[in-house]
Amino acid sequence: MNHRHSFWLYFTVILVYAFLYIPIFVLITYSFNSSRINVRFEGIVNLEPCGPFYWFCQLSRNREVINAVRNSLIIATLSTMGSTVIGTMAALALQRHDFPLKRFAEGSLYIPIIIPELVMGIGILVLFTTVFRGINTAFHLQGNARLGMGLGTVIVSHIAFSVPFVALVVRARLHGFDRAIEEAARDLGATEWITFWRVTLPNITPSVLAGALLAFTLSLDDFIITFFTTGPGATTLPIYIYGLLRRTITPEINALSTVWIGIVFVLLLVIQRVQQRD
Amino acid sequence: MSTIPSVPGGARRRGFLLMLPSLLWMVGLLIIPLGLVLVMSFGRRDPDGNVIYTFTLDNYLRLLGFSRSYPCGSTPPPCFDALYLSILWRSLVLGFQTTVLTVLIGYPLAYFIARAPASRRNSYLLLVLIPLWTNFVIRLYAWMIILRSQGVLNSVLGWLAGLLNLPFQPLELLYTPGAVLLGMVYEFLPFMILPIYTSLEKINPSLYEAAADLGANPWRTLWRVTLPLSMPGIVAGTILVFVPVMGTFIVSDILGGRQVILIGNLIQRQFLDARDPAFGSAASILLMVLTLAMTLYYTRRFGFGEEITSA
Amino acid sequence: MPRFSIPLVALIGLLVLLGGCAGNREAQPSGEEPRTASGFVCPAPQPRLEVTSRELNLFVWTEYIPNEMLECFQRVYNVRINRDEYSANEEMYAKLLAGGANYDLVMPSDYFVPLMIRQGLLQKLDKSRLAVIPYFNPAYLNLPFDPNNEYTIPYQAGTDAIMVNTERIKEPITAFADLWRPEFARRMVSVDDSRTLIGIALLTLGYDINTRDPAQLEEAKAKLAQLIPNIKVFDSDSPKTALIGGDVDLGIIWTGEAALAKQENPAFEYIYPVEGPILWQDNWAIPANAPHLDAAYAWLNYILQPDLFWLTLRDFPYNNPHQAALEWARVNQPELYDSYMNSPITNIPPEVLARGHRVEDVGEATPLYDRIWTEVKGQ
Lengths: 278, 311, 379
What we know:
The complex is a heterotrimer. Chain A is mainly alpha-helical. Helix content of chain A is 73%, strand content 0%. The longest helix of chain A has 34 residues, at 63-96. The radius of gyration of chain A is 24 Å and the shape is globular. Chain C is α/β, with parallel strands linked by helices. Helices cover 38% and strands 15% of the residues of chain C. Chain C has helices at 5-23, 67-77, 89-98, 113-118, 194-204, 214-227, 239-244, 255-264, 293-303, 306-309, 311-315, 323-332, 334-342, 350-354, 366-378, and strands spanning 55-61, 80-86, 105-106, 152-165, 188-190, 231-234, 250-254, 268-271, 278-285, 357-358. In chain C, strands 4, 5, 6, 7, 8, 9 and 10 form a 7-stranded mixed beta sheet that branches. Chain C has a 3-stranded parallel beta sheet with strand order 2-1-3. Chains in contact: A-B, A-C, B-C. At the A-B interface, helix 1, helix 3, helix 4, helix 5 and helix 6 of A face helix 1, helix 3, helix 4, helix 5 and helix 7 of B.
């Protein structure tokens, strides 16, 4: 069904897309900047060893960046796995069962979505520091044995803010789920467990994956909660860039952005291609 | 073979067990931390920055303007001091401005995508999503490059002025409140576009035809048909934009030159620089209560749509 | 299920790749001199200490340690360095006080040291494990904030003063009081430090920089409030960026940034005001609960060797308290030595030093200072 929009709508749409993409374009362009201070664009860089890709080569030798990216991916993967499982279970529980404390559980699940991340981050910081101080003092832990913030605390915190989103997405799907096929399966002799595995789960998988994707994105991009729960050796990419922004900024960050944008673009294309195949 | 589902007790138990992990997580990492923050908010600070656990409303009173232990300017306590109220007000205004702007800018795009042929919609959505995936902090850095005195925008304007033979003074765009607003709008625009799109997409296209058949021009249709039907999406988008804006400190840090103090900055600094965690806790609780209240009012009035899941 | 196998495989592949990348850590063929990625030859540690820890957690100021120092230490001792950074003492203090993170080394400024000692955040240095103390210029040791250097050893010292872009500002500037001129509206960058700015306001009023008198502080607040409109950006990480980039024309910055800015553009002048600059000193200290103590001592002994410490002259030119490194540079890097000695920024003239003011902890008056800062910045 094709219809014509007014010229002004097309005009606005193009402007908005331009607004969204001009910074991206600037970022990519400046990753080829010959000026080290990266304030003005002063022509395309051409230094050894990689010529115009000088900053990309510098980037690949930057251990701290690679560590930060690796940390971000590890945290995102682990927290996504955790929150997807926990969130899906929660969605099933809320949508299909009645149990004590249901209202409370449901309410608590909605809170992280509605309150600012800052408040949650501060709360978690206070929690961990209090708990760690207590345990360290009670067990007289010294040196390396002392509990502290690190990868573990970040992962646990990421799960905390991802679970509500996963639960919400899966629950929306369960809401419109026709249970007739489940009953049909049971009529045919399948047990509850097999029904779930062979009938229910495949049907909600797209939503579960969507929830997982959402959790992954949230974790990868998270700054505020990570800011309050990170420790030495657990620096993630957003934290690293924030730190880098405070130093003298070289086009290395731009190179990093370009690489990141490239990977994201390819990944999204792949996912879209995969989705279309169904 | 029985078709009756399992014994009710078993179902209840199963439900509870399924819910248990998320319950543990939420209680452990949300309820208890918030409780700790609440407890701390009633405390005081000692000269070195530690929290003295006691029960006093001083922190809240100070936030609302009534200073009991600190002087307000040259007046000794107790006195009235609107400093923190003004910070709160400034944050609310910024939240409001950001929300309005994202609706104005995002709605046309959402509308366009929703009414595009189904095959193209995903591509258009993808284009909206890609910037979202490129990392929050990097996007802010890009605006620094564009807005600074010798940045892209000023270079382009200067070149244009040169062409037209006009005198040109570089615009002071970076490190202003305007830059902070721009940064907020840019960061949160996709969060407004997606929910609005979801609710617009649900509208049956034949409604538009019906309206046209009844003689309504496009504006009338928009005002009387489309807009009301997409309200759930706007509500969801408002929540997804307003709440984070209120809590973000990094945008005003980077684009505002650490000059624009919002409530997010105030809270962060209490825990980092000013060494008054009790006061910072009180400000956090206040912020949370405010956003919760506004969200509840808003959703009660307009309904809590499923559009929030689209984000 | 084939549906999500592709993205999953891609993800796992990416992880493996990155794991491999970072896993290929500086595996040096034995017998060869360790070199950094830039080709710098790492000197041998003298003395070489016994280190069993595999990691070292540094909590340091941004932009302060030459990269070769970090790389050489990692290669020579095979210890991985985790570096977290801060741009204000308050930030470092708050994190240590909260106790969440375990660091091995921090870099407190002079006026924070007594406070941290009082709070039990630092541990006493075991002087028998530190061979480097004789290398220092005695003028930087045994200072009032840490008599006998029980808890700290110096790293760098410097001043806070005025830097002016003489291409854009032709009138002479000689005092902090000059900064208040209305024609400088929104043309300044300043460090984001409460003690520095409140201190400057106090100095222009003729008061002591560490006063606890509420009436004097009140006056300083009013005076400071008049300066704020002149400040366009606060930056305690890299204020030279705003100067070099042309966003501002003058600023209140510190020694290292000033020297680097002047290297970029000789038209930048660093001016010691008539009221006297603010003096400061950054020091190494070991937190009370350092998890990798042996690595911490190895680090201190290694980077404070003259043949490694001279790198600070090259990368972060400050007032250098390390006499032995200066001596080494005089012999082995004469150009660097000359440029250090000839510049009043790095080689601070004695009469300037004499009229300088050192910031000290103000104890129970701290909330007053905090409050002034919040108010003045919140307007």
